[in-house]
Give the backbone structure.
Amino acid sequence: MLKIWGRVNSVNVKKALWAMEELGLKYERVDAGMEHGVVKTPDYLKMNPNSLVPTIDDDGFVLWESHAIVRYLAAKHGAGTLWPVDLKQRADSDRWMDWAYTFQASLRAVFWGLVRTPPEKRDPKAIEEGRKRCGELLAIPDQALAHKPYFVGNSLTIGDIPLGCHVHLWMRLPIERPSHPNLERWFERLCARPAYQRIVDIPLS
Ligand SMILES: N[C@@H](CCC(=O)N[C@@H](CS)C(=O)NCC(=O)O)C(=O)O
């Protein structure tokens, strides 16, 4: 039985869970991280020495790093759907997976500042700088989505998954956002997917 450790409000756990749900996999989830603890226990550290979530155990095969998990599960269960079989399409989807980290680096200050920091401890300058930089960065995927519904063509692939989770935070934060019409349409498409509704589009916390 596929097992995953991670709290549901973690953006990186969401990537793995969303992929699992899109692939129709049965799994058991164990709450771990932040208030749930677990990640510093000797047993967990044996699986994941980073003390971070997510971690999966697939019949004895233990894996951490959310993007590696998404790639592994998609390659195993989603050839031709989440996992593009064409080499160039897969490289394209890999590129967007990796680019999600570029966006995350700027989004972090905004999300943590507004959602996980009490008002009296917030750093408004860092939040505003992050917000502006995120707005600039998102012009890049907005342009890429000008003539296609998903990053790699006509259907959802691994290329949409990490950014789909980070962009959700961006879209749901109480902030001013510059207009990115293609990206907004892509986000609406994600929001129409039952798996995205169950896993990703939940209240920010
Ligand atoms: N690069 C790692 C980062 C994992 C990570 O930073 N996880 C965060 C949650 S998003 C975490 O474990 N934070 C500590 C905690 O929840 O206790 C991945 O993508 O899996």
Notes: The chain has a mean pLDDT of 98. The first helix runs from residue 11 to 22.
